[in-house]
TrEMBL record:
It comes from the Eukaryota. It is found in: Cell membrane. The lineage of its organism: Eukaryota, Metazoa, Ecdysozoa, Arthropoda, Chelicerata. The chain crosses the membrane at residues 23-44, 231-253. InterPro entries: Insect_Ionotropic_Sensory_Rcpt (IPR052192). This is Putative ligand-gated ion channel. Keywords: Cell membrane, Glycoprotein, Membrane, Receptor, Transmembrane, Transmembrane helix. It is a multi-pass membrane protein. GO terms for cellular component: plasma membrane.
Length: 331
């Protein structure tokens, strides 16, 4: 009942406009506002981030990873070296599995049909994979990226079929011409001219969030652990307020224990009046000395407060008919 009354009094006091008079109350009030304002903003930001951030789908960065999705629609450039690689590689299980996926989905297309809008939209939905040459891919994706403003394409990290150029030639082509062509291709690539041309032509592709750079750590949905620092601040202020309240309680208890009660001096005064004509003289019983009376009066004055602030009047009466007045004695 006492705790309930205390809580009700605190709640009613919190409705006032005036701040608490003591320091612990102010600290508790500050912690309360910290809870209401800061934590509310933190949860609001966390909710907005959770709603806006969309987790990326599982990436496919290698041929082996592609084989773990047997229902994935796989498209290959028809008549290219990739089709020949998957079709004729009898000793590599991954290539054979990919070729079966291509045959199951009838995924051999010409260049214009391979990078159609329907196929690119299917790639965005995570239902289709296109296997082709990187330069051609970057060109077609850059052309179609303006149609998919909120789209995000990515290229696999593994280049399972490394080549500098892919050129279709007749089997009867002159060998001397082939040697000259290969030497010129190697010179263009090794000198960096080919990469400079790629960067110049497809440099805007990075702004469209399509790049051949190794992907960074995929963004995960925001969790409660990302705002745990706010809880640490809240707990810190709560501990400070509790410590201040306990310190105040302990100090009050120590003050009450150390407070000594005031010393009380009891003085028993027995007085009588002796009538001698018209003079009235106050004397203590058992004492005829004036010096003894003054000594006792001094002790009484030292033990009691100042007479001007708290006077004590004692009136002594007599049965003598001549004593019509009373003499007050101030102790």
């Amino acid at each position: 009942s006492n705790s309930g009354g205390y809580i009700s009094r605190r709640c009613s006091a919190s409705l006032r406009r005036e701040p608490p008079p003591n320091i612990p109350g102010r600290i508790v009030l500050a912690v309360w506002w910290l809870t209401v304002v800061v934590l509310m903003n933190a949860f609001t930001g966390h909710m907005e981030a959770t709603m806006l951030i969309r987790p990326e789908p599982q990436r496919i960065d290698s041929v082996k990873a592609l084989t773990t999705h047997p229902n994935m629609r796989t498209l290959v450039w028809k008549g290219s070296a990739f089709e020949a690689l998957f079709k004729n590689s009898k000793d590599v299980e991954e290539y054979q599995a990919v070729w079966k996926m291509v045959e199951r989905s009838n995924g051999t297309y010409e260049t214009n049909a391979l990078y159609s809008l329907n196929n690119l939209r299917s790639v965005l939905h995570g239902k289709t994979v296109i296997v082709g040459e990187i330069t051609t891919m970057r060109y077609h994706v850059s052309q179609a990226s303006r149609l998919f403003r909120n789209a995000s394409f990515y290229f696999a990290k593994e280049q399972f079929f490394p080549h500098k150029f892919a050129i279709a030639l007749r089997k009867g082509t002159n060998t001397s011409f082939l040697d000259f062509l290969n030497k010129r291709i190697n010179w263009v690539v090794e000198s960096g001219l080919f990469q400079a041309w790629i960067n110049k032509e497809y440099g805007r592709l990075d702004s469209r969030r399509s790049s051949v750079r190794p992907p960074t750590k995929p963004s995960l949905p925001s969790s409660i652990f990302e705002v745990q620092s706010v809880f640490y601040i809240y707990l810190m202020f709560t501990a400070i307020s509790v410590a201040a309240i306990l310190l105040e309680v302990v100090s009050v208890v120590n003050l009450k224990c150390n407070k000594k009660p005031g010393r009380v001096v009891k003085i028993n005064v027995v007085a009588d009046f002796i009538s001698q004509q018209n003079d009235k003289t106050a004397t203590f019983k058992g004492g005829n000395s004036r010096r003894h009376l003054d000594y006792r009066n001094k002790l009484a004055r030292r033990a009691l407060p100042h007479p001007e602030t708290s006077p004590i009047f004692r009136r002594f009466g007599s049965s003598n008919k001549h004593m019509e007045k009373y003499r007050p004695i101030i102790l």
